[in-house]
Write a structure and sequence with these properties.
single chain; 249 residues; alpha/beta; Rossmann fold; 8-stranded parallel β-sheet; 3-stranded antiparallel β-sheet; globular
């Protein structure tokens, strides 16, 4: 696990963009794993600029998103499908048919999850996966629990996660109670992973991720077992780490 600390979210995002640009320049047919939320927005803005300048192209790229709210249509204002269109897909030269997000309206979420993992497998697996981090150390919607699912699956959202996401809705009552998410196994099968986190609210979760014991009560700690993980944090998010745990850039 390679941990890099930056002065702020902007600097962190620029470095993340460089890793993605390097990936696409090396392999223009890359399969990318994408995330939503506020953390990757500046990364996506940088990728849009690189695309418009001709530095990279998405014409032959395939993408798979981590998750989607259950019971939410793709055109809902707070759906992750709409988020991705507004913050990335509509601004780049990607074939929309090559963008994949779990269906929030799946009649059979178990089949939807199995089909989603099969699509990833048929695409050759994810070359580079970006992850955000929840304050309770969840990744995707894999919440702390006694056990974690290996595959893409439906899951109940914790009260903490719903409260954290309420800012995107009119009230917490409007936040869905379930989601469909890649499982930890789905995530861990990515060839390379970038985990991004910023702000003091993520400091405990980063410490659990990087230095804590590997436990399902802190799902992100399982990333310690992956052979190629880069953790990008700002100074606030890394404030609980021992100095020997990271490199300052």
């Amino acid at each position: 696990m390679n941990v890099l600390m930056f002065k702020d979210h902007e600097a962190m995002s620029r470095y993340a963009a460089k890793l993605f640009i390097d990936q696409l320049q090396t392999d223009p047919q890359s399969v990318l794993g994408l995330a939503t939320g506020s953390t990757p927005i500046e990364l996506y803005q940088a990728l849009i600029r690189a695309n418009k300048s001709g530095e990279i192209t998405f014409k032959d790229v395939t993408t798979f998103n981590l998750d989607e709210y259950l019971g939410v249509a793709a055109d809902h204002p707070e759906s992750y499908a709409r988020f991705m269109r507004e913050h990335l897909f509509d601004a780049i030269d990607i074939d929309q048919a090559n963008t994949h997000i779990p269906s929030g309206l799946a009649i059979d979420p178990v089949k939807e999850g199995a089909d989603y993992d099969e699509k990833i497998r048929q695409a050759g697996g994810i070359d580079l996966q970006v992850l955000g981090l929840g304050g309770n150390a969840h990744v995707g919607f894999n919440e702390p629990a006694e056990s974690l699912s290996n595959q893409t699956h439906a899951t109940q959202l914790t009260q903490d996660t719903r409260e954290a996401n309420a800012r995107f809705f009119g009230s917490i009552e409007e936040v869905p109670t379930e989601a469909i998410t890649m499982g930890m196994g789905s995530i861990m099968r990515a060839k390379k992973i970038i985990l991004m986190a910023s702000g003091q609210a993520k400091a405990k979760a980063i410490q659990q991720t990087v230095e804590g014991p590997i436990t399902t009560q802190a799902p992100s700690s399982l990333l310690q077992l992956h052979p190629d993980v880069t953790v990008l944090i700002d100074e606030a998010a890394g404030s609980n780490l021992k100095e020997t745990s990271y490199e300052i850039l």
